[in-house]
Amino acid sequence: MVIHYHWRPGGVRKVIELTLPAILRSAPRELEKLTLLSGSPESEHPLIDGLGGRVAIHSAPALDYFSEQSQNPESIGHSIGETLRALIPDQDAERTLIWFHNPGLARNAILNQEVMKFCEKSGSTLILHHHDFWCSGRWARWQEMERCGWNTLEKAAGITLGATDRSVQVTINLSDLKSLAGAMGDRVFHLPNPVVRPKRGSSSRIKNLQKWVEEELQTTAPLWVCPTRFLRRKNLLEAILLTRWLRPDAVFVTTSGKASGDELPYARMIRDAAEQGGWNVRFGILDKPGSPRVDEVLRVAEVALLTSVQEGFGMGFVEASACGIPLIARALPDVMPDLEAMGFQFPHLYPEVYIAPTLIDISAESHRQIQLRLRAKGELPSVLSSRFQPEVIDFEQPIAFSRLTWLGQVEVLNRSPMLAWEACRSLNPVLEKIHSSLNKLESTPWPVSRIPSPPRYARAFWKLANVAVQSTPTNADVVLQAQSRLIDRGLCPAAFFPVQAERFYQKPE
Fold this sequence. Notes:
Elements: E1 2-3, H1 11-25, E2 34-38, E3 55-59, H2 73-87, H3 90-93, E4 97-101, H4 109-122, E5 125-130, H5 140-147, H6 153-160, E6 167-171, H7 174-184, E7 188-190, H8 203-217, E8 223-226, H9 236-246, E9 251-254, H10 264-277, E10 281-282, H11 294-299, E11 303-306, H12 315-323, E12 327-330, H13 336-341, E13 349-350, E14 354-355, H14 362-379, E15 399-400, H15 406-413, H16 417-424, H17 429-436, H18 454-469, H19 476-490, H20 498-501
Parallel strand pairs: 1-2, 1-4, 2-3, 4-5, 5-6, 6-7, 8-9, 8-11, 9-10, 11-12, 12-13
Antiparallel strand pairs: 14-15
């Protein structure tokens, strides 16, 4: 059984789509049944070839994010428990492997509780696969856990990193592995996301894709693509800014226009700002049924943009390389080590986008920063609030765009792109170099070795599954220590970005 909160487009779904066929092919014994379980409607599910008739797709709304729920915690837990018991009969439980994605993010800690409770009683084997963590800057999850009764750090650690008999923990990057394994030891495995280079389409297919894009966008302008849906950590206003600065005649697009409930205010803010500012942008160009795949659109784009302030693995980096197009991207400290270990070298990375202070109302932005930090501090567990010391902005020096509030970012975007770029180009030598060589940007070479292919991934998957079958629960003190290591990283001054911390968006008076 594969469990995730939802099947909206994103990294988790992509990993499942890439790996499940290989996992089934290399299974040590015949699999009788595969169940995909989530809170998404049954019409929204991973697109996986080669599974035959052994797959069942089941939807239970109680599994979706807690912020999407209308029931009380007790009712949510009852619904999830009933679903698990109905889908995994007692006689099959000890022969069942549950692959549970993103429990450490705590988007629905009640789901964590019910899955662990079920495995504890039934003897099912459990792989807890962590893509992100609530204590890595996603502090809004704390208030949700509190509402459900997990109101201490000890309880939070137990519900997100705790485990039962016959279970293991999996991380997708080396930084997370170091944090968890430093406490949990050999109960934690590093399983980097697999990467696949899709076959290049025929020249006729490329022409048809180009035609589809031109008809969809009603323009023949150069295409700059950010392969994502609306997520605050994607820092989309920075991607729009780079497009307007470096290629003013290009159209900026995202592949998906979808957003979860708590991201909707962010999505509305960007849509409203784009409409009011007359920006040349389009969101969700692949949302219509029958649209091309993400990799196909990337093949006809001029540039891919990735401006995230935080990623677990960085699948977009790999997808851009696989499609052979130039990538302009923020260099992420938690992402680069894994990708470099695979042999990837990205020629157009930048550290930050620096803004001249003259482009913003410093008094207004300083006030917003103070208010934001107070609200962000209030979201933290009280025992951690004294450790919250984000970097203080010196408004007399160049300012990193990613450290501005959204109103500050929109203020910069509403300036004349040409004049703003001229005011900032000397502050951004890497971007200036990219701007001066737009006609000869390099694509990322595809590594010839060290690539974690789906077959290699599947072999590693079954090895850790065999370890899980023989494992015993981790001591609660060890689990708390592992969480503390993650908290230390999440409270690092450089880890605070307003775009992630701002939960409520209001239009200026």
